[in-house]
Specification:
With 114 residues, this protein is mainly α. The protein has helices at residues 25-29, 37-60, 70-86, 91-109; strands at residues 9-13, 20-24. It has a two-stranded antiparallel ribbon. The termini are far apart.
Length: 114
């Protein structure tokens, strides 16, 4: 009676470290739905771009009688925050989180309208 082969194991060489570590392809196949590193970098770049636009608009909304603009700026920053959470980096997420907090504080100080 022949025994069934074990799951295929290969050595993955990390170009950053130059060392290899075994990879179980059966277990790695379940992680195939995760975005690749290039997608994560692009999500972070898009998150940073949205955060910079939202920050510029939030600075504009600090002028008197323009606080109502934060009702549009906060959801924009929340979209950037979501993209920042999906990326592997922290910069986009942190920038959008700051914009959300600043915009919410401005709405609080203006009573939600001013």
């Amino acid at each position: 009676m022949k025994s069934l082969p074990n799951s295929q194991v290969d050595v993955y060489v990390n170009p950053n470290r130059g060392r290899g570590k075994p990879v179980n392809y059966v277990a790695a196949a379940s992680c195939a739905a995760l975005p690749g590193p290039h997608i994560q970098v692009m999500m972070n770049a898009l998150s940073l771009l949205i955060g910079l636009v939202a920050l510029g608009l939030a600075i504009f909304a600090f002028l008197p009688f323009l606080g109502w603009a934060n009702w549009a700026i906060i959801p924009l920053a929340m979209v950037g925050l979501g993209l920042g959470f999906l990326s592997g980096k922290d910069a986009g997420r942190n920038l959008n989180l700051i914009v959300v907090v600043v915009g919410a504080f401005r709405l609080f100080m203006g009573g939600g309208l001013l």
